[in-house]
């Protein structure tokens, strides 16, 4: 079969649901990592443990099992999450599988632009058949990857090993899409703000995971600043507002989260405070991006207190 014929036949097989996950990988000629165990043959509890610990190819194998219901209930949504985590650790097969899912709408809304992003990476990484599938797709690019709701930062596995910390990450993954936020940005902010300590309290009375000041908490409708979910929601609502105000410029957004909007506007950028500049650099390095999608409509979302809205530039200031 020619490469071009394979690409067309692959799309036909996948849309008909007749090709299993492992058969798909084999048919596509995807490489098998030398010197590693066959994770697909491990007991599922062991496979899941390794995936949670951050073993990249275990994450891939768990994604395949979940996508195709091999030994456990089929869940394309969870499969995509595990592919995203493996993809962030440069597993070429995960790039291919994500492209495949978005090209065919398997458990996701079909999106040729996202599919092209992942298949393009797979093709550049040496996955022979990725280029053939790419040829079947419409032209287009996307600022999204389809993984924004999943924490994929490789450092998270060492930084976040306790059950409590992993529960926090899971909660962020649940909530972040409701605020239009990349879960990875939220996690990077939490790491810098509180080190994942829900009871963290600063000398300036910034409290909880996202270190909300009482004025910020009131402004964004947080009734119990020590409630984990309310604290997360308040911090995410503030980040969303800042993203709209500063048009997605993360240097300004993060500086404002640390020092207040007024200071950023005063200096037309990151204020000349050692703490704030170090804070911004640290999060940008951990997150890996300098811009974030935003919607100016976020500025018009109701705040808890109309009077607080009028004082927005001052009420959230946290001077170093």
TrEMBL record:
CDD domains: LT-like (cd00254)
GO (cellular component) term, any one: membrane
One Pfam family per UniProt: Sel1
GO MF term list: peptidoglycan lytic transglycosylase activity
Transglycosylase SLT domain span: 176-268
PANTHER family documented for this protein: MEMBRANE-BOUND LYTIC MUREIN TRANSGLYCOSYLASE C, SOLUBLE LYTIC MUREIN TRANSGLYCOSYLASE-RELATED
UniProt-recorded name of the protein: Lytic transglycosylase catalytic
Organism: Thiolapillus brandeum
Lineage, uppermost ranks: Bacteria, Pseudomonadati, Pseudomonadota, Gammaproteobacteria, Chromatiales
